[in-house]
Amino acid sequence: METVEAYFERKTSELRLLNDCLRCPMPFTKPLSVAEVIQQKFRLTALLKAEHASGDWTGTETSWAPSKHTSGPFEFAYDYQRADLDVRGPAFYELNDCDSQTVYAGSGMAAIAALLLASARLIGRAKILVPPGSYGETQELVQGYARQLHLVTDFHEAIGNRENCRILLLDSSLPAAAFEATVRERPPQLDLLIFDTTCFVARSGRIGRVVKWAKHHQVPLVMVRSHNKLDSLGAEYGRLGSAVFIDRHHDFEKSPSKIKGLPSEMRNAVRLLGGAALPAHFPPYVGRPTYRELTSRRTAAILRNSRRSSRYFAAKLPCMTRELRYTHGLYITLKGADTLSEEKARQTAALLSEDLGGRGLAIRHAGSFGFDFAATEWFRDRTTDEYVVRIAIPDLATVHWDELTHAIAEWWLAHMKAARLRRADLLA
Asked: Residues near 378 by Cβ (< 8 Å), separated by ≥ 6?
């Protein structure tokens, strides 16, 4: 458990880290409420962005001036529309003895879209194994815009026809059981492993585990990520994504296989799709000494809160929870007493945050996770094809989160009971 005092001390350290990145730091006081934490963090983030814009005024779409473009410890060089963006600076991952090369893009989805299209162009027709429960938009992307990739959902189906290449897409948004089952398997002979790490903190032991798993099975590995989630201290600094090619296992530029030159092909796809990263979206505080420590501590707090709420919801809301044990531990999903339509799930998510937020609780209607407040959103569970409500677990002191957890459960029970009564009246 984290005390309220320890929580505010930690939040003060986060705010100081942001403030120290300003050329002219602002005077600020230790926050005394969760609302102050949220307001000060987003205000400082806005000031950082504004300061970058005013200081890097030559950094237009065309690099027409000889000025040096930077964001904190990151240095950038590029030509027209950043199609050839070269980034020098700290790595988001800690890969130790692994050599790697990184291709940045304008978002996590832009990164994985460019990677999949580049893969399809090099490989041609291929089977892509996507375990059940993987991120829905990635599945939409494969089925709608990467038709050369035949989506399958289990290893046994992937073992079939060896004429086609095989790609495994391992997603950090999987339920815990599905993730464990996948990394315990001895995979069929794979030509490529794409690992979406977005829901794991960059220092997560699970990332290291998958890197070792890929090495053991001699599978070439690319890690894709959205940096607008866990890498920006919950402030959503800017849209930024990347693909990291792990060269320790496979030299992508010299490989005799069909994926030879994949990093170069992805860079070309980023250029042609107009998906290049913006220098202004690289968080300037990433290279600071306390950044990794504070990121790890806030993620640990979210995971502790997640375990507490999962146990409470399981006991308090029997038959009204959908998934409480995602492998990342960043959110849980609740279902209605009766089946929810997409529109009803949307309305319920908005109403939940509106009602509890109106009572001064730290909850908002937002479609992401990793914040200093709980975030509600509708969610389509692809394993059951049900619409549910997603509760993203916040970085809050234990007592604050327990209070909010109880309020969510009480609201859910009351709301579902009222919905049943209304339905009964209509049928009467």
From this structure: 342, 345, 346, 348, 349, 387, 388, 389, 390
Domain membership flag for residue 334: no
Q: How many domains does the chain have?
A: 2
**Is 23 in the same domain as 125?**
no
Domain assignment of residue 220, given as a range: 69-281
pTM for this predicted structure:
0.93
- 263: domain CATH number is 3.40.640.10
Identify residue 183 by its one-letter amino acid code: V
Mean pLDDT by 10 residues, the chain (428 residues): 95 97 91 96 96 90 84 91 88 83 96 94 89 91 90 72 80 94 83 95 94 90 96 95 79 65 94 93 93 96 97 95 96 92 96 97 96 97 92 98 98 88 63
Residues 88 and 227 in one domain: yes
Query: Which residues, other chains included, contact 131 with Cβ-Cβ below 8 Å and sequence gap of 6+?
Result: 153, 154, 169, 170, 171, 174, 178, 179, 181, 182
Does 391 fall in a domain? no
Q: Which amino acid is at 296?
A: S
CA distance linking residue 50 with residue 35, whole number of Å: 23
* SS3 call for 392: strand
With CA atoms as reference, report the closest residue to 231 among 239, 243, 222: 239
**Residue 336 covered by a domain:** no
For residue 130, give Cα distances in angstroms to 90, 255, 291, 396: 31, 25, 33, 34
